[in-house]
């Protein structure tokens, strides 16, 4: 997985989330190392805590906003990718056909059990943490290890055909700032409500993500109102009343 | 302690062998290395349990993953982490716990099956668990197209959970109450009987 | 963490740290890891000398090369030797197979290159493969900053696979498509170069 390296402007930004508390930069590192699940990270809370910690008058405010918007945009992409249906053959079995109520109940029951078992495992792992083993091991006798050549070939196939995306690099360097987009948004809504879709219809994906962050930011400071009539429905930006 | 003994006592032989292993050693391997009778081994382990009791020692004797293992007392782990200048490994995510629960209780099962049970693609989580040696491919499902690999939990997983075997976990049905299950079915029954043509909002 | 966990005694801290080091640890390193005063350390070592006395234990405390080291009691060495002969080496993980495949097909290559190709930090796996003598540092990449070591597979690896040479393995282009191979090469070559116009962060 690749990521544009963060500038150091956010090195003092720390976050407090249910799943993680500590420096924001480390949060990104944990997500990239798959040690934290992106879909467990509430992006909205993340944006909110950034906005709370924001100092608009600081000397590097612009750089900080840019860095944050850039990484937040990447997180949004990552999250949407994780949540969208898998395309690889192995998981294609996740069917779309509607389930009968019995099947649905069956599945939910099974998932509930897994959920409870997961909680049990979490406690157990926590109780057993901190046992480090001996370093005084002896090397096994030479020649006692057998490696299957087929497994090596299979491993080569797996490692070399894996897609290490989502590539964020192809989005190119950030060429727009939160402030610029905030300006565009404010101009656009001066004439009345506008949907997020139409506002961003001409933008590339990065700008769309930054526009989203900018809209959140403006909503936070009361410059506009964001409305969404139904979950996952269209998002409307209106001038603040 | 009795005076000069030349022949090592059973407990000494066992603790010496345990020192040189970073993974649990089963009773039969301990016997064949030390040449002890079954009875002597039992006696030696009783002595060592006392000697390496968590209340009395910085090194503890653990009975995990079907064998015996010396490891540091968790109460001393901050000193170990300072010595190694290594941070404690990050705890697993909630998703990782779920995947492990699938492998433990429903496994061995394929990646696809894990994703189906959880309702989300679990490949990345599975990969990081394999990387951490907690999950392993234990075979292949030859009945499925492409013979996808079957995943199971490892001995490292058993050691990390302090379990001596897979049987050392409560049965899954004891973790969920009947009332909870009944509630799921009830809620479901009431929600599916409502609009007849709303059928597409599954997600 | 349970509240009633007691503060470990000095000797416990020291013995725990000694368990996780295969080489002697000097007094000052022991003190900085355990946080003990000089006096407490002296007391702890006195306790441990008694606990791990050759007459009383299968594990002994040795004072060598200006440091302290736990090791097996020489009186137990026949048992250790039998254990070594009989111990079956731990099987390789999926991650280990992938790292070996990288070294076999793309090597010699640096640790960083292995991690880039696999898309995940592989340092720990590489360390254990070097310890097991399946990977070895065969030179250094002088074109890269810091001249990182280049890794290749060992003869022991070839012996373990029953291959007489690298040529016994199927050629890489029979395993993956040209397109996939090109992508791997790209990742290999990418090193740390940032696109010229991304340039905000220098380092």
Short description:
Chain A is mainly α and 241 residues long. Helix content of chain A is 48%, strand content 7%.
Describe the structure.
The complex is a heterotrimer, with one copy of chain A (241 residues) and two copies of chain B (203 residues). Chain A is mainly alpha-helical and 241 residues long. Helices cover 48% and strands 7% of the residues of chain A. Chain A contains eight helices and five strands. In chain A, a hairpin with a 4-residue loop joins strand 1 and strand 2 (21-23). The radius of gyration of chain A is 23 Å and the shape is extended. The two termini of chain A are 43 Å apart. Mean pLDDT of chain A is 74; it is low at 1-5, 85-95 and 165-174. Chain B has 203 residues and is an alpha+beta fold. Chain B has two domains: 10-84, Winged helix-like DNA-binding domain superfamily/Winged helix DNA-binding domain (Arc Repressor Mutant, subunit A), CATH 1.10.10; 94-188, Winged helix-like DNA-binding domain superfamily/Winged helix DNA-binding domain (Arc Repressor Mutant, subunit A), CATH 1.10.10.10. Helix content of chain B is 47%, strand content 12%. Chain B is built from ten helices and five strands. Chain B has a three-stranded antiparallel β-sheet with strand order 3-5-4. A two-stranded antiparallel sheet of chain B has the order 1-2. In chain B, a hairpin with a 2-residue loop joins strand 1 and strand 2 (67-72). Classes of the chains: A mainly alpha (241), B alpha+beta (203). Chains in contact: A-B, A-C, B-C. Chains A and B meet through helix 4 of A and strand 2, helix 5, helix 6, helix 7 and helix 9 of B. Chains B, C: This is Segregation and condensation protein B.
